[in-house]
Amino acid sequence: MLRHEFRPGRLIAGTALVTAAVIYGGDAGGAWETPWFVVIPLVVGGLCLAGAVGAVTGQVRRRRGRPVPEGADPADHAGTRGG
């Protein structure tokens, strides 16, 4: 049994932001030289992709009719039926 609901949009957003942190961390540590504008497309693209994946996931869950887990706030599960 899963402990929590899988949210692929959050996974993608987290991966994009951790990647940006690693890039800037490597620059700060002297491992490589990173121009300041390199991370902007990574973060913006990652957040846009995460939003698109989150929207598709919400539509899939709405279509399947998955109920909201017991004791959870229905506002946290936008796009699902139940309650």
TrEMBL record:
Highest taxon, organism lineage: Bacteria
Keywords: Membrane, Transmembrane, Transmembrane helix
Bias type Basic and acidic residues, positions: 74-83
Chain segments annotated as transmembrane: 35-56
Region (Disordered) residue spans: 60-83
Protein's UniProt name: Secreted protein
